[in-house]
Amino acid sequence: MKKTLLLLSLFLTQIAFSQKGKEKILVTDMTKIKQVANISIAPDGKKAIYALRTNESSETDKLDFDYRTHLWLTDFQTVKQLTRGTESVGAATWSADSRQIAFSRNLKGKSQIFLMPLDGGEAFQLTDFKYGASNPQWSPDGTKILFSANVTFSDLLKDSLINPSKKLPSWSIEKAGFKSNDFLKNDKKVKANPNGSIEEIRAYLEKDVEDKKAKVITRLNFQGESTTEPEIRFNLLFVIDAKEGAKPVQLTKGFWSYNGGSWSADSQKIYASSGRDSLQHPDRELNSSIVLLNADGSGSKQIIAEKGISYNSASPSPDGKLLIATMSKTDWLGFNQIILANADGSNKTSITFDRAANSFEWTDDSKFVYFTASSNGGVPVYKLDVQTKKIEKLSDYDTGISSFDISKERILFAKTEVKNPSELYTADLQMKNAVKLSAHNDEWLQNKALSFPEKRIYKNSKGQSVEYWIMKPANFEAGKKYPLLLNMHGGPTAMWGPGEASMWHEFQYFCSQGYGLVYTNPRGSGGYGKDFQFSNYQDWGNGPTEDVLAATSDAAKASWVDTSRQVITGGSYAGYLTAWIISHDHRFKAAFAQRGVYELSTFMGEGNAWRLTPNYFGGYPWESNIKPILERESPYTYVDKIKTPFLIKHGENDLRTGVIQSEMMYKSLKIMGKEVEYVRMPGGTHELSRTGNVRQKIDRMLRIYEFFERYIATK
């Protein structure tokens, strides 16, 4: 690959940090990591609630762990735990007088809402709803709680409480051979009989579906994350008085979902996002609108809606005058943009900002909005001046702010950095004078040897600046040679950097095992603007390969790198990229592809992320002008060129990318007699490496290490 690279060496400010410990980061240290999330400051500004996610030893299997999430309270000087037990607790919301919190917790297999007084007393159950209750939002006046419930299609058809008029959907269910939805009408007089009339036979077949003897699929998006989902589910909004014995009142009705519900400042109205076209099947309706309805469910109307646009994350200002939200085009590769509008949806204005914003928080005076956005390897906090429309970056690119909230005096935030995966901090509203409040990970990290990344930038053949990071082995010794691992992110719109929480342990583990590591954000990554993110259109292979291999080649120039011992890994899209690279380049001694996509035509049917095919490649496999592009861009096309020893992993229940992708790649290589091994994780989904079974996460990490050691261990 003949490319002229302009190499600029930039060093993280954290490089100077000296880690005194010498102990290795162990694979089991992943179970010690505690993560701060869901921060919420009380209305009086004197205290705050946050959630802490931990890994606790399983009560049924001593080798396994259970995820737990519990609430903690801080007065901005100390922290203390509020909730305990085997059942995890969801994010908390404050009452207007700052004396109570509401949160969700599982009870008998369903999420229900509980209230807890903070001046003494136990939490008590507020809801006992048939369909569960989650995402509580306390009204600004402190009298009511908005919540959501997830309801199946069949429940909506049959339940007279949530569908009292027994209405049918206004959109077609798209059942072959039926031009209308009349067949959905439940005639209780027809008895199931396999030997009876056609109506009785249909009743019999329907009973088989109810008894889970068969799945009948008529919808387009029938693949979930771990199993097929023939039935659509709908997110409905309810409200309940914040007192014992209250009954929920249904706000939204019909066969449509309402997401992101939030109260208006006067507690009289509710904002949410929902589909734009009520006659369109929900699986085909990619547009969403901002909906405003009265707090009793009446007067629902779309206040911001546009064909080809998805509007989400509506957040009204405290003074009740304005609204901030995101918009994204749906006809191609969507990219979130910020919009401001009047509270009634009028005077909509787009804000110039070339990053994908989220987590909006208004200041009390409604003059500023704080938010986060992945950018240049980090997740900084930004501040929007509502009057001037100017945006100011408040924190750096070297850390990740995963959750935050603001009051009149301060910002409270969770931060990921190289020296600590997650802690709670407070600072002034310019994010200056930060003070660390928690020490959830300090003790086990105290004597650990950590590796701190060196950041570099080069210009690729398109003239783009591509950022990458090089990490030396922990306990590095001058004059010694070390193997080099290229670790790549998926997405393809993901972004890695020193503040990436999901990779903190993996990076440090391999450095502790004596590997040097290089990771990069090649073209197509998020966090660098719209043009950069879309620059891999119809080019998933060669372009990103140029970028990651250029970074690897530069890292390999270091005197400490043993260039004969280079290895490569990546998951999801990066599983694709791993297979692509080893079919075109043979520098790596071993490769490990995780939950990848290898053949883009079959991916259309295999995975629930199938829209990546038409979005990134311009059409469908049956179109004559698209078929050769998909063939050209599929690693499977070049399977016979693979010479690198190859380990392929897939979760048994991964329907985002689909297990047939990996089966086909493995089987083909095996037929050809190549060095290949295939690992399937029973019950594992696409999220196995992030939120999957902890023991399987440990297994995954060890398999990468063990496989690489077969080929690069010094004799």
UniProtKB/TrEMBL annotation:
<keyword id="KW-0645">Protease</keyword>
<dbReference type="InterPro" id="IPR001375">
    <property type="entry name" value="Peptidase_S9_cat"/>
</dbReference>
<dbReference type="InterPro" id="IPR011042">
    <property type="entry name" value="6-blade_b-propeller_TolB-like"/>
</dbReference>
<keyword id="KW-0031">Aminopeptidase</keyword>
<dbReference type="InterPro" id="IPR011659">
    <property type="entry name" value="WD40"/>
</dbReference>
<dbReference type="Pfam" id="PF07676">
    <property type="entry name" value="PD40"/>
</dbReference>
<keyword id="KW-0378">Hydrolase</keyword>
<dbReference type="GO" id="GO:0006508">
    <property type="term" value="P:proteolysis"/>
</dbReference>
<feature type="domain" description="Peptidase S9 prolyl oligopeptidase catalytic">
    <location>
        <begin position="505"/>
        <end position="713"/>
    </location>
</feature>
<protein>
    <submittedName>
        <fullName>Dipeptidyl aminopeptidase/acylaminoacyl peptidase</fullName>
    </submittedName>
</protein>
<dbReference type="GO" id="GO:0004177">
    <property type="term" value="F:aminopeptidase activity"/>
</dbReference>
<dbReference type="GO" id="GO:0004252">
    <property type="term" value="F:serine-type endopeptidase activity"/>
</dbReference>
<dbReference type="Pfam" id="PF00326">
    <property type="entry name" value="Peptidase_S9"/>
</dbReference>
<keyword id="KW-0720">Serine protease</keyword>
<dbReference type="InterPro" id="IPR029058">
    <property type="entry name" value="AB_hydrolase_fold"/>
</dbReference>
